[in-house]
């Protein structure tokens, strides 16, 4: 079974703090994704990575950055957390087009910025 | 801009009833339409997917209906069970790549 793990289930941070969200997948997938989930807005793509050190901006990259130094690990960074970044953050991975487009999701990190 | 519009936002159905969720898309070049199911406290998981060369796909009690001319696709949950209570997301590919655009989600509650 594919397993995508996220470093924290719940996180509370203060405005202005630097926040790191970590994601690890164990299936040697090329692609990794960071989404945020908000009621009524579905899942919105923040960043996408298709290979080590390669990244693409998604629909809402402002205020976020990412790092992918190893194939299995994809980190989301909030340089200076703000209250409007309070949300559920979901990491996902997929094998790539040749193997189908199914995305495998982690359990999510609920981030609260106060 | 939202490329996939999903309705309704929430749905309450009695056990044994039919749940119907609709999605409309804009880009006729889309070639893959998945539905994801998310239980509370869990990440979404692929439930069923369809390609536009077929009009319907059925897996157990779950059926996707696809209407290419109307640019719509729907998820039907037949004989709905309390264990089907979850949030459902439709999705479509962003251009011809690995990324997906998700609909806004439908929270389904099946009452016993």
Salient structural properties:
heterodimer; A: about 110 residues; mainly beta; 7-stranded mixed β-sheet; 4-stranded antiparallel β-sheet; 11 strands; B: about 110 residues; 6-stranded mixed β-sheet; about 0% helix; globular
Rg of Cα set of chain B: 13 Å
Q: Biggest chain pair contact, residues each?
A: A-B, 27 and 23 residues
Helix content of chain A: under 10%
- Rounded mean pLDDT score of chain B: 90
Going by helix content, strand content and strand pairing, the class of chain A is mainly beta
SS-based class of chain B: mainly beta
Q: What is the overall shape of chain B?
A: globular
Question: Count of DSSP helices of chain A?
Answer: 0
The SSE order of chain B reads: EEEEEEEEEEE
The largest β sheet of chain A comes out as:
7 strands, mixed
Description of the structure:
- The complex is a heterodimer of chains A (114) and B (112).
- By secondary structure, chain A is mostly beta strands.
- Chain A has no helices and 11 strands.
- The mean pLDDT of chain A is 93.
- Chain B has 112 residues and is mainly β.
- Helix content of chain B is 0%, strand content 54%.
- Chain B contains no helices and 11 strands.
- In chain B, strands 2, 4, 5, 9, 10 and 11 form a 6-stranded mixed sheet that branches.
- The model of chain B has no long low-confidence stretch (mean pLDDT 90).
- Chains A and B meet through strand 4, strand 5, strand 9 and strand 10 of A and strand 5 and strand 10 of B.
């Amino acid at each position: 079974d594919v397993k995508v793990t996220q470093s924290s289930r719940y996180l509370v941070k203060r405005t202005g703090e630097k926040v790191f969200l970590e994601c690890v997948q164990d299936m040697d997938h090329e692609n990794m994704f960071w989404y945020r989930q908000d009621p009524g807005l579905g899942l919105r793509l923040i960043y996408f990575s298709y290979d080590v050190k390669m990244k693409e901006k998604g629909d809402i990259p402002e205020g976020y950055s990412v790092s992918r130094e190893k194939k299995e690990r994809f980190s989301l960074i909030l340089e200076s957390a703000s209250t409007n970044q309070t949300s559920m953050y979901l990491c996902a991975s997929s094998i790539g087009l040749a193997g189908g487009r199914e995305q495998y999701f982690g359990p999510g990190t609920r981030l609260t910025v106060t | 801009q939202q490329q996939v519009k999903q309705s309704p936002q929430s749905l309450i159905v009695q056990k044994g009833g039919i749940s119907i969720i609709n999605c409309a898309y804009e880009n006729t070049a889309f070639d893959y339409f998945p539905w994801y199911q998310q239980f509370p406290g869990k990440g979404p998981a692929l439930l069923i997917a369809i390609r536009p060369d077929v009009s319907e796909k059925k897996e157990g009690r779950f059926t996707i209906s696809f209407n290419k001319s109307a640019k719509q696709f729907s998820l039907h949950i037949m004989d709905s069970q309390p264990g089907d209570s979850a949030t459902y997301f439709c999705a479509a590919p962003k251009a011809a790549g690995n990324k997906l655009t998700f609909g806004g989600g439908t929270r389904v509650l099946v009452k016993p």
